[in-house]
Write a structure and sequence with these properties.
Blueprint: E1 4-8, E2 14-21, H1 27-35, H2 43-50, H3 54-66, E3 70-75, E4 80-86, H4 87-93, E5 98-102, E6 108-112, E7 126-130
């Protein structure tokens, strides 16, 4: 399917992103534990061992607020910080321009014009940024 570019995203449009943070301990430890047949962890044990470090959460939240973003939610067990702000501000922070598109079937979506760049201050903490690209990933048959 070919999408048609409609132009830049309104820089004042409010959008939300989810930032995925590094786990407190390497996830390979969990894989090894499971492959050795050890007892599964409870949710609480998993969150304590593999959730986000509180210091990492604070670092991302502080960064967001300093850049005029709203912290919508922060979750150590899910290793995510959800932030909201103007599309132009978020695009600038991650080194891209946001563009609007429309698929042949009329579906509209937003996508960045290139690869995201995690700000230097967060590069060791943030492992993923979700929400700048809103292309549908699955379609009905």
């Amino acid at each position: 399917m070919v999408a048609r570019a409609l132009g830049p995203t309104d820089p004042d449009q409010r959008i939300e992103l989810s930032l995925l943070l590094r786990p407190r301990r390497p996830l390979e430890e969990l894989e090894a534990r499971l492959s050795q047949g050890q007892q599964p962890l409870t949710r609480e044990e998993f969150a304590a061992a593999y959730g986000a470090d509180p210091g990492d959460l604070e670092k991302v939240e502080s960064f967001a607020r300093r850049h005029g973003l709203q912290v919508v939610e922060a979750s150590a067990p899910r290793r995510t910080v959800r932030v909201a702000g103007k599309a132009g501000d978020l695009a600038s922070l991650f080194g891209v321009q946001l563009l609007e598109f429309q698929d042949e079937d009329g579906t509209r979506f937003r996508a960045p014009n290139g690869e995201l760049e995690v700000p230097d201050e967060l590069e060791d903490v943030v492992q993923g940024v979700f929400g700048l690209d809103t292309r549908p990933r699955a379609r009905r048959r």
